[in-house]
Write a structure and sequence with these properties.
Four Helix Bundle (Hemerythrin (Met), subunit A); binds fe (ii) ion; mainly alpha
Length: 188
């Protein structure tokens, strides 16, 4: 379980090598929702590295396949909802009249919708086809990973820094409450 910054950094190193499985985030991180979203991006990067490795090797261990399928179907979908229903509307509220930013956030939400069938297909393959991943499926793994890495780079590099500057304390509390409710976790 990732508890804080130090663990995030060592996780990031292993993630870049495609070695780190997507371990759960500590629930108390939900008190700092922007940190939680950033940590979730690190987990998603690790998943992309693992998907690339699996495509290259053509094999996946059963426990790894199950963990990846669960991450894709549950954690990643929750993350998309955190952004579409929580983070993006708050940024728009604090950035009135910035058409370019609104267009960027609409594009990111559209990305989520567009990759949804790929997420479900990947989860299905990982659940049913493991341990052998056919060469015909490899482009789905690598294509999804490439798309996700571009999406993540923009969100971590542009969207979250803007949110850190513009969201008020009340916004952060609201976002935290929203993300807790989505996961059925009571406030501390
Ligand atoms: Fe996103
Ligand atoms: Fe994201």
């Amino acid at each position: 379980m990732i508890e804080g910054r130090g663990q995030q950094q060592s996780f990031a190193m292993r993630a870049m090598r495609g070695e780190a499985m997507p371990v759960p985030l500590a629930p108390h991180l939900l008190s700092s929702p922007l940190e939680y979203l950033y940590a979730d991006h690190l987990r998603q990067r690790s998943v992309c590295a693992i998907l690339r490795r699996i495509a290259a090797e053509g094999r996946v261990a059963a426990h790894e396949a199950a963990a990846l399928a669960s991450f894709l179907e549950r954690d990643l979908i929750l993350h998309h909802e955190d952004e579409e229903r929580g983070l993006f509307p708050l940024i728009i509220k604090r950035s009135a009249g910035e058409d370019r930013l609104e267009a960027d956030l609409a594009r990111l939400a559209q990305d989520h919708k567009r990759v949804r069938p790929q997420i479900m297909r990947l989860a299905d393959i990982l659940t049913h086809a493991a341990p052998e991943i056919g060469t015909a499926d490899a482009p789905l793994f690598t294509g999804f990973a490439a798309h996700e890495l571009r999406h993540l780079a923009f969100e971590s590099g542009v969207v979250l820094p803007i949110a850190r500057v513009r969201l008020t304390r009340k916004d952060i509390t609201e976002l935290s409450r929203d993300m807790r409710a989505r996961r059925g976790i009571a406030a501390p």
